[in-house]
Design goal:
Radius of gyration of chain A: 20 Å
Radius of gyration of chain B: 18 Å
Shape of chain B: globular
Number of helices of chain A: 9
Structural class of chain A: mainly alpha
Distance between the termini of chain B: 33 Å
GO cellular component, one term (chain A): ATP-binding cassette (ABC) transporter complex
CATH class of chain A: Mainly Alpha
Largest sheet of chain B: 6 strands, mixed
Shape of chain A: globular
GO biological process, one term (chain A): amino acid transport
Structural class of chain B: alpha/beta
Helix content of chain A: over 70%
Mean pLDDT of chain B: 91
Keywords (chain A): Amino-acid transport, Cell membrane, Membrane, Transmembrane, Transmembrane helix, Transport
Strand order of the largest sheet of chain A: 1-2
Oligomer: heterodimer
Order of helices and strands of chain B: EEEHEEHEHHHEHEHEEHH
Largest sheet of chain A: 2 strands, antiparallel
Strand order of the largest sheet of chain B: 6-7-8-3-9-10
Domain ABC transmembrane type-1 (chain A): 15-217
Order of helices and strands of chain A: HHHHEEHHHHH
Family (chain A): Belongs to the binding-protein-dependent transport system permease family. HisMQ subfamily.
Strand content of chain B: 15-25%
Chain lengths: 227, 258
């Protein structure tokens, strides 16, 4: 335990990075994924095709490759995030961090899209017809009638996607962001006799974080059950 | 219900409002609508009847382009139906639609169901829209249910809310696609009563229904369809007592025996 307790501030900082990666990518992936889902069911066939190509390509690519692309390949073709450099106390959000956020967002959005599309399919066709019949344009039909109901039906799969994202943030540790997984590895190197304890502590924190997410998802599911 | 509110709907009575010319529609191999010519004039109540699968619901749904057509033209108030997009949305706002399965927005309260169109499409202020919605809900007899959700209402109540939701847009014409077919028998009357009083107030209505009683009392004209074509149109009196086509005689013989 000393390994963790003696380095508590570093461990806390590491989990702060983990949570920042998760929260920023989580919100952005929900926004991007929802937009993709709307395109996939939308009236414009080119956009429908583009969104479905996005899902196919990104979903079929391993996360590590997506992250390496944004971290190493993308800067070579001029797509870098060097303009990002924000510091809050010990926490520094730089181009590496941003590349990981973008990679996680791009990757997770494909899964969010499919989770929400399953929710959209669960909304009765008549709901959209009735919304069109009162004169709402496509965007209004989605925003006012279909998506609010689709989100309710998508809460369980969306929770799974977001839980996967929380755990996927550890991949960023392999790319230079000193989040929880990278910190665990470095502590393992420095305190070789306490590996089991170090591992258990980090695993336990992840279990707790995921439990919190599940709890929130359950509450949302229950609150939105009426209707 | 008060009569004066719908008075503008009867202005210019007798002018053509909905005109279908040579409309064709296919579902794959099935020729769902054949050579449909139909003119609905302002203030007229047209009841469309016919056996299942005769294309009457499809006909009704083409008028606000929930179904597209393959050939022919449909005009509303002189304007051809636009392609998908903003103009089509604007046109749909002028056409009220009541569905067999009510289709109230499940996540919104009764009041929100009725105010959504006026606020989002017509740009009405929330207060004004709610005031008007409550009046309409009172008119159809569900004013005391305004804060509930659709699932908490009976089928008949839901369908009356659906009528109020359509009326809130002050449509030029109301389409009813089998509005009572999903209702328990004791709830049919409450919905038909609302429709009859709408008809009396001069609302232009196209009603697809199996309710022959409604056709007799409220219709100006009965359109009989079979196999995707209009077989016969006539006044209800003539149609029910003296149908001219064998197809209509056969149909009436089957349904009027009981």
């Amino acid at each position: 335990m000393d390994a963790v307790l003696d380095n508590l501030d570093a461990v806390v900082r590491a989990f702060t990075y983990t949570l920042l990666l998760f929260l920023i990518s989580g919100v952005l992936s929900l926004v991007l994924g929802t937009a993709l889902a709307a395109l996939r069911v939308g009236p414009v066939s080119v956009l429908r095709l583009a969104a479905s190509a996005y899902v196919t390509i990104v979903r079929n690519t391993p996360l590590l490759i997506v992250l390496i692309f944004f971290r190493i390949a993308a800067p070579k073709i001029g797509l870098n995030f060097n303009f990002v450099d924000v510091q809050f106390g010990d926490i520094r959000l730089n181009n590496l961090f941003t590349a990981c956020v973008v990679g996680l967002t791009v990757y997770t959005a494909a899964f969010v899209c499919e989770a929400i599309r399953s929710g959209i399919n669960a909304v009765q066709l008549g709901q959209a017809e009735a919304a069109r019949a009162i004169g709402l344009p496509f965007a209004g039909v989605m925003r006012e009638v279909v998506l609010p109901q689709a989100f309710r039906a998508s809460v369980p799969p969306l929770a799974s996607v977001q839980i996967a994202l929380l755990k996927n943030t550890t991949v960023a540790g392999a790319l230079g962001v000193f989040e929880a997984f990278a910190r665990m590895r470095s502590l393992n190197n420095d305190y070789a006799t306490q590996r089991i304890e170090i591992f258990l502590v980090f695993a336990f924190v992840f279990v707790v974080l995921v439990e919190v997410l599940s709890f929130i998802a359950n509450r949302l599911e229950r609150r939105w059950r009426i209707a | 219900m008060t009569a004066q509110e719908s008075a503008p709907a009867s202005a210019g009575r007798g002018e053509p409002l909905v005109v279908l010319e040579d409309v064709q529609k296919h579902f794959g191999q099935l020729h769902a609508l054949k050579d449909i010519d139909l003119t609905v004039t302002r203030g007229e109540v047209v009841v469309v009847i016919g056996p299942s699968g005769s294309g009457k619901s499809t006909l009704c749904r083409t008028i606000n382009r929930l179904e597209t057509i393959d050939e022919g033209t449909i005009t509303l108030d002189g304007q051809p139906l636009p392609q998908e997009g903003k103009e089509l949305a604007a046109l749909r706002a002028e056409v009220g639609m009541v569905f067999q399965s009510f289709n109230l927005f499940a996540h919104k309260t009764i009041l929100e169901n009725v105010t959504l169109g006026p606020i989002k499409v017509r740009g009405m202020k929330k207060d004004a829209a709610e005031k008007k919605a409550r009046e309409l809900l009172d008119r159809v007899g569900v004013g005391h249910q305004a804060e509930k959700y659709p699932a908490q209402l009976s089928g008949g109540q839901q369908q009356r809310v659906a009528i109020a939701r359509a009326l809130a847009m002050e449509p030029k014409v109301m389409l009813f696609d089998e509005p009572t077919s999903a209702l328990d028998p004791e709830m049919i009357k409450e919905v038909l009563d609302v429709m009859v009083s709408l008809a009396e107030q001069g609302m232009t209505m196209v009603v697809v229904t199996h309710e022959m009683g409604f056709a007799r009392t409220a219709a100006d004209r009965v359109v009989f369809m079979a196999d995707g074509a209009i077989v016969e149109e006539n006044t209800p009196e003539e149609f029910f007592t003296n149908p001219s086509s064998d197809r209509a005689k056969d149909f009436l013989g089957k349904i009027l025996k009981h």
